[in-house]
Amino acid sequence: xxxxxIGGTGVYDPMLLDTPRSIDVKTPYGPxxxxxxxxxxxxxxxxxxxxxxxxxxxxxxxxxGIIWALKSLGVEYIIGTNAVGSANPAMRPGHxxxxxxxIDFTKQRPFTFFDGENTPVVHVDITEPYxxxxxxxxxxxxxxxxxxxxxxxxxxxxxxxxxxxxxxxxMAGMLGGDVLGMTNVPEVVLAxxxxxxxxxxxxxxxxxxxxxxxxxxxxxxSAIMSENMNHVRRLALDSLAAVAGETKCTCSGxxxxxxxMQD
Length: 263
Fold this sequence. Notes:
Layout: E1 3-7, E2 18-25, E3 32-39, E4 42-48, H1 63-72, E5 77-86, E6 96-97, E7 101-105, H2 132-144, E8 149-150, E9 154-158, H3 166-174, E10 179-181, H4 184-193, E11 197-207, H5 218-227, H6 229-241
Parallel strand pairs: 1-4, 1-5, 5-11, 6-8, 7-9, 9-10
Antiparallel strand pairs: 2-3, 3-4, 5-10, 6-11
Helix pairs in contact: 2-6
């Protein structure tokens, strides 16, 4: 099994997968529920990042467990979906953004596999944190679907679960940030540590605090995601189905074994 989707807000089930079956993968970080099915003759794994029905807050997500579980299943390519706010006036609600960089303002979540007494010292290169090959596939498919899609963007990750202040949104924009969220870090970093090609489809659900006047609400975020759900699912799954052979990238790095995983 080489392909996987990690679904974020609003993407809680693998609706387009044929013959889905559920498995619980045991990991050093606890069990992880995974749904496995078939799409266009490709076997694809699906994990709901927030759990079924959005029951897990951003800072409580078992990021290490999710990536470890997918790696143990043989996954080589992951596409994540994320609902995001915007700090960039050009990126409006309903737009898709295929991010290429991130800025990390998280505070207290585990962010590496290699922090135990018996783990090696590992420094992964994340000059380009997202797989360039996967990103290009997503962009090209998004354009063919006539989506309002931005081929680049910088994701600014905050700890959550609260939304950002208007000052934080202004700061994010001044630092070069385009979109705002709570979950892409450490997911992208852990995928790189695991040597997995990883890319993210962001859907802008709201303008950042102070940019639109109205108070932010989760209902607003969920409503925009619901409107774009079919596009999100199709874009993610079609992009994975388009992966042919090995990607020409450096995502695998030094291919260091993860703690607790046999070669």
